[in-house]
Amino acid sequence: QxxxxxxxxxxxxxxxxxxxxxxxxxxxxxxxRMGWYRQAPGKQxxxxxxxxxxxxxxxxxxxxxxFTITRDSAKNTVYLQMNSLEPEDxxxxxxxxxxxxxxxxxxxxxxVSS
Length: 114
Fold this sequence. Notes:
114 residues, seven-stranded mixed beta sheet
């Protein structure tokens, strides 16, 4: 069983930055592909960024050049650094762990508004 706990969401003005964290427990963190997804009101959940066990990263086109996903195996934690935030980035952000099965955190709200 994998437990994921997100933190770091909040309210930020357009152009601002936030860093989300996701602490994992209950598994060998290093062997899982980790990712961040988001879901805006009235929309489907979409992938934002993923990072493999070998630190290969992949990003949605809408966040390329603005967001960076990293992982720290010593701390069993994955991060999402979000810069140049836009109102369209407003959503609930979910941490994901995948290795055959999907595991999800409870989500953290990110609101970009002036």
